[in-house]
Amino acid sequence: MLSGAAFIQIGTVQYALSEHDCLLIPPYIRHFGYRDSPNGTVYYWMHFFPNGTVTTSYTVNLAGNENEVTLPQQFIPKNFERVALLIRQLLDSANDKSSSQLATNYFVSSILIEVSRQFIATIHPAPKSSSRFELIKNWIRIHSHENLTVAQIAAEFQMTPVYLTRLFKLYEGVTTIHFINSIKINQAQELLLTTDKSVKTVSLELGFRNEKYFLRVFKNMTSLTPTQFRNSYAKTYLNNIEVDPTIPKP
């Protein structure tokens, strides 16, 4: 779910889905919408057909085969942007006539693996951060369009830059600068895909001190330049009757 709400009944169970909800619908079970969705509702919908054995359980055994993917019935990914980026790659591949079916299958597998990874991380979570640290991260997100420095953030929360970076290493596994840049690059990706703003304009809006530094950070985090990233996903169409593929019987 990207926005709005969807109301889906699977068998006799009803699910009310909102932003960032992921729902898994098992095969051969009747499902339908039991209420109308409001205007502005947007979601991704995909069909996939596993080649191997599928096991359904009401308990999660995470000590099993590391090559297996564990998917919950309903789940909200902690990092939805990672999942959304993979889905955009899938759409681009599926709607590119020159792309191999193998590539499309690869992206579907990547999406399922990423959802599974984030779900398992909720079962074995990292050390729980304090409410104050969550406040720091939210403050960075709110001010991500500014030219933020570690010293500025540390001063805002009355701590030393060294201690602030120690908190990020403990709870996020990255430095403060890396976290700041990851927030900025996520927003840059969205602007590149949804607007026609120039790369220079995007870098200025996100508070990078110069375009060359923005290009270097973007390339380090995505392995692509901003222009390559934008051109790589030019075919991520929204679903409509012209591009909705015929679904084969499993």
TrEMBL record:
PROSITE patterns xrefs: HTH_ARAC_FAMILY_1 (PS00041), HTH_ARAC_FAMILY_2 (PS01124)
Pfam entry (one): AraC_binding
Keywords in alphabetical order: DNA-binding, Transcription, Transcription regulation
Stored InterPro entries: AraC-bd, Homeodomain-like_sf, HTH-like, HTH_AraC, HTH_AraC-typ_CS
Domain HTH araC/xylS-type: 134-232
UniProt cross-references to Gene3D superfamilies, sorted A to Z: Homeodomain-like
Transmembrane is among the record's keywords: no
Protein name as annotated: AraC family transcriptional regulator
Organism (species): Levilactobacillus spicheri
Taxonomic lineage: Bacteria, Bacillati, Bacillota, Bacilli, Lactobacillales
